[in-house]
Amino acid sequence: MGRSRFSSALLAGAVELPQTGQIAVFRPSGEQDLSALDAARVQIIHGFYPHHEAWRSRGYRVAVEASGSHDAGVVFLPRAKAQARDLIARAADCSQSGIVIVDGQKTDGVDSILKACRKAGARVSEVFSKAHGKTFSFTGGDFSGWRAPAQLDIEAGFVTAPGVFSADGIDTGSALLAAAMQGQLKGRVCDLGAGWGYLSRKVLSSEKVTECHLVEAEHAALECARHNIDDARAQFHWADATQFSGAGDFDHVVTNPPFHVGRAADASLGQGFIAAAARLLGRRGTLWLVANRHLPYERELAAAFGEVAELGGDGSFKVLRASRPHGAGGRGPQSTGRKQVLT
Ligand SMILES: C[S@@+](CC[C@H](N)C(=O)[O-])C[C@H]1O[C@@H](n2cnc3c(N)ncnc32)[C@H](O)[C@@H]1O
Known about the structure:
With 343 residues, this protein is an alpha/beta fold. It has two domains: 5-146, Vaccinia Virus protein VP39 (Rossmann fold); 152-342, 3-Layer(aba) Sandwich (Rossmann fold). Helices cover 25% and strands 29% of the residues. It has helices at residues 5-11, 49-57, 81-94, 110-119, 172-181, 198-203, 219-228, 267-280, 298-304, and strands at 23-26, 42-45, 61-63, 72-76, 100-105, 123-124, 128-130, 133-139, 152-153, 159-160, 187-192, 209-216, 234-238, 250-255, 260-261, 264-265, 281-292, 305-313, 317-325, 341-342. Strands 1, 2, 3, 4, 5, 6, 7 and 8 form an eight-stranded mixed β-sheet that branches. The chain has an eight-stranded mixed β-sheet with strand order 18-19-17-14-11-12-13-20, sandwiched between helices. The chain has a two-stranded antiparallel sheet with strand order 9-10. Helix 6 links the parallel strand 11 and strand 12. The longest helix has 14 residues, at 81-94. The chain is elongated and about 60 Å long. The chain starts with a helix and ends with a strand. It binds S-adenosylmethionine. Residues 50, 165-166, 171, 174, 193-195, 198-199, 215-218, 221, 240-242, 256, 258 line the site of S-adenosylmethionine.
C-alpha cells in the first residue's frame, strides 16, 4: 500500500496532532493507510460493517459511534455532504485539544468543506494537496449547526438518516421491484442490502411470509430499519451480505444491490450479491432483483440460476427474477469464518 495523502501530510508537518492522547478517526475505509498514527492511540469510528471489521481484524479499537472525549479527531470525508458536516461537528465536539484533521477527495467535496470550515470561523492549517484531494487541520470555529438530526422523517411514515442510501425518499427502482413481486412471496425471505427497510416492509405486508431477514452493512441504515419495521417476523443482521450465511435455505431473496464505491460505479458489488443469493436460496428459491439498466448482471445470473426473466422496469431500471439456483438445496448454513452480528 502506498503512503496515503493523510500520512504524507502528517509526516510533512502540514497538519499536526497532539503528542499524546487518544485520536478518534471517523470513517477511514478499510484500505486507508494510517501508518503515520500510533495504532495504540487510535479509535476507529465506522458504521459500515466490512470496513469496521477490516480495522477490528487488524487489532484496532473500533466503535460505531465515538464515545467520551478524545484528544483529537480525524475525519475521512464521506460522499454525502450532510453526513460529512455531521462527522466534522462530532469530531470537533470530542476533540479536547480542539484539533480536527479533515481528509477528502475533490469528488467528495473537500474544497467546499474547506471553504465552509473557514466560514465557520475555524483557524485552518496549511492545506496539503495530493492525489486529487486535500488534507488540512483546524482548531476553533462554531460547528454546532453542522450536526445532522439522527433520523429524518420522509414519506409514508418512514425514517432515514443522513448518508444512507436514498435518504430523501423511496428509491424508484425499489418501488418498481416492490410492485413486481407484490403478492408472490411466502415463507422465509432474505433482503440483501436492506437499507432503511423499504423492501422488507413491503415483503412483510404479505401474511404468507413467515420470516424476513434484513441484512445490511450500514449500521445507521439498519437502525432506521428497526424503527420502520415493527414486526416479530423481522430479524435484523448487521453484516456483509456477500459473507452472510443465514439460517438455512430461503424461499426468496429480494435485493436492490449496491453499485457504487464512493462515486465510482462498481458492478462487482451486485455480482457478489447475486452469488450470495444463489448460495442462500433453497432449491426452489427465487431471487428478485432490481438494477440500473446499464449494470451487467445477466452473465452472473445465467451462471448461478437455471431460469432468468425480466419482469419489467422502466427506461432506467430493470426488474429481474431468477429461479432454480444451481447447486442449491439441502446445504446447511456455510461457515465463512467471519463474524456476523445478529441483533
Ligand atoms: C441500492 S441500496 C438499497 C437499499 C434498500 N434495499 C432500498 O431498497 O431502499 C443498497 C444497500 O446495500 C447496502 N450495502 C452495501 N454493501 C453492502 C454489503 N457488503 N453488505 C450488506 N449491505 C451492503 C448499502 O448500505 C445500501 O443500504
